[in-house]
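Postdoc handover notes: sequence design on the structure in folder B. Input tokens:
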């Protein structure tokens, strides 16, 4: 069987990572959550005081070359989790503080250059499902299957709100909705690699679709290509 590359892009909180992870497990592929990498850089910048009113780009750029972002497997869950300087930071990168700044950090050229190169190296052998914003357009323009996921902002905010509450975070729905809208705006309007549907991507609106149906449909698309 051919080992293909699958690119899943789309707006914030469209359920890309759940779907990508499930698909990778089913196909025996590796899953790469590129959003987690941008979040890890943001966590680093916050910890190091490199974000004031806005990110201090020159200061961050100086620290980037030596900055180590990676993944390790959680043996209990079987999931791959993101590491920063060798330490697992999966538990810290999804909070609203990181979410608030991540799109500004992800708009910086030096950050994208570093992470895109690393993502391309990780995907070089094929057999990969990668999710993000620029996978089908920039990171893996030759991917064998490209999916572009959308859903209404309210539905996406509601999903993310429930997720955060489940994790014990104190948030208001309006705050989460505003964050989803802000990130959509910054991600779609930034100069470098803005969020776009690749011309050859399949658009997939999951506003009214359960997880199982989504998985079955995308899995069927993958089997057609493999
Ligand atoms: O996927 P997730 O919502 O965790 O991504 C967090 C943020 O990282 C996005 O809002 C976007 O600003 C940035 N990102 C990106 N390119 C990617 C993946 C994520 O710019 N490939």
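Designed sequence:
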């Amino acid at each position: 069987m051919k080992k293909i590359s699958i690119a899943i892009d789309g707006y914030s909180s469209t359920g890309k990572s759940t779907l990508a992870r499930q698909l990778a497990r089913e196909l025996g592929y590796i899953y790469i959550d590129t959003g987690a990498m941008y979040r890890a850089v943001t966590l680093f910048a916050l910890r190091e005081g490199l974000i004031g009113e806005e990110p201090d780009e020159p200061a961050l750029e100086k620290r980037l070359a030596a900055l180590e972002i990676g993944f390790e497997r959680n043996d209990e869950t079987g999931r791959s989790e993101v590491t920063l300087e060798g330490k697992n930071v999966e538990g810290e990168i999804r909070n609203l503080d990181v979410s608030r700044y991540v799109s500004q950090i992800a708009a910086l050229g030096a950050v994208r250059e570093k992470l895109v190169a690393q993502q391309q190296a990780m995907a070089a052998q094929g057999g990969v499902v990668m999710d993000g914003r620029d996978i089908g357009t920039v990171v893996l323009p030759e991917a064998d299957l490209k999916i572009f996921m959308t859903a209404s902002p309210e539905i996406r905010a509601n999903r993310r709100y429930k997720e955060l509450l489940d994790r014990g975070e104190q948030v208001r729905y309006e705050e989460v909705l505003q964050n989803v809208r802000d990130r959509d705006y910054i991600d779609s309007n930034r100069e470098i690699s803005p969020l776009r549907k690749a011309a050859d991507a399949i658009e997939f609106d999951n506003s009214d679709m359960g997880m199982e149906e989504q998985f079955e449909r995308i899995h069927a698309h993958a089997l057609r290509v493999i």
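Context for whoever picks this up: The pocket of cytidine-5'-monophosphate is lined by residues 12, 34-35, 38-39, 102-103, 106, 132-135, 183, 187 (CB under 6 Å). Don't rerun without checking with the PI first.
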